[in-house]
């Protein structure tokens, strides 16, 4: 009976972990909560990444409805890919509609070592660049969530770290910029709209434009957007507007969402 018990325990343990990738880097995922079907549709996993003496780990929380741990482990496998020299291993926040809820951890083989570069948006690598979201003011006191100044970032690997390419980032956001310019033009020409309504309609696009321009070091455009904001926003809105803008640091990376540990 003791041998049977040990055999059953090993079999159950085998169902709760998976080798996602074996070469050139080993990636494994392990179940954390120990339940086959999760009553809250959340499947927390620990992911480990190993190459020689370099070992990393982090936790992810997969949100899967009407599922089980086996399917969760298989999903984690689909979120992992080798795109030499980069290893991308997916992470999830556990649901929700925030912009950085689905990310990839990025590792790189460099001079015989496995280096952790950082986080990027899920499935965003291509043509030697990565993408992410500048979400510092996704929640703020001036705009709606949908209208918040979340900027699409273009990142490149340089010297074993991820850095933002400011000009590519500026160009990447031109579609939203142009849409907002069209909206601003419509609002400004609307003679039936009172000043308070105009201020409410203009807050979102003007803040996005100003944050983008400061972040990308486009001073002339920033001055134009600020001049219009000062003319159309009331004192209270302008105070919040300037407080937000003062915290924008050109080229800064988003605050890390994933705790990647080296051990």
Describe this entry's structure for a reader.
The chain has helices spanning 2-15, 69-78, 166-172, 174-189, 195-215, 219-232, 235-246, and strands at residues 17-21, 26-31, 42-51, 54-63, 80-83, 86-92, 102-110, 113-121, 130-134, 151-158, 161-164, 261-262. Helix 4 runs antiparallel to helix 5, helix 5 (195-215) runs antiparallel to helix 6 and helix 5 packs parallel to helix 7. It has a five-stranded antiparallel sheet with strand order 1-2-3-4-12. Strands 5-6-7-8 form a four-stranded antiparallel sheet. Mean pLDDT is 92; it is low at 2-12. Strand 5 (80-83) and strand 6 (86-92) form a beta hairpin. With 263 residues, the protein is α+β, with helices and mostly antiparallel strands.
The gist of it:
By secondary structure, the protein is of the alpha+beta class.
């Amino acid at each position: 009976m003791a041998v049977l018990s040990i055999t059953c325990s090993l079999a159950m343990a085998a169902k709760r972990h998976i080798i996602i990738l074996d070469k050139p880097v080993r990636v494994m995922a392990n179940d954390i909560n120990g339940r086959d079907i999760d009553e809250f549709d959340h499947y927390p996993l620990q992911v480990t990444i190993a190459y020689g003496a370099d070992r990393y780990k982090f936790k992810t929380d997969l949100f899967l409805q009407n599922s089980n741990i086996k399917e969760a482990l298989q999903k984690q496998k689909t979120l992992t890919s080798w795109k030499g020299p980069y290893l991308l291993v997916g992470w999830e926040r556990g649901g929700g509609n925030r912009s950085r809820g689905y990310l990839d951890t990025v590792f790189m083989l460099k001079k015989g070592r496995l280096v952790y570069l950082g986080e990027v948006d899920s499935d965003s690598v291509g043509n030697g660049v990565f993408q992410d979201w500048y979400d510092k003011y996704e929640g703020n006191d001036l705009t709606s969530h949908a209208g918040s100044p979340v900027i699409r970032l273009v990142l490149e690997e340089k010297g074993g770290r991820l850095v933002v390419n400011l000009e590519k980032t500026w160009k990447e956001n031109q579609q939203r910029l142009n849409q907002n310019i069209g909206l601003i033009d419509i609002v400004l020409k609307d003679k039936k709209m009172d000043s308070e309504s105009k201020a409410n309609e203009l807050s979102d696009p003007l803040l996005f434009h100003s944050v983008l321009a400061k972040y990308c070091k486009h001073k002339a455009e920033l001055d134009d957007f600020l001049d219009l904001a000062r003319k159309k926003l009331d004192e209270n809105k302008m105070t919040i507007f300037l407080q937000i803008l003062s915290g924008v640091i050109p080229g800064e990376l988003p605050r890390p969402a994933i705790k990647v540990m080296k051990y």
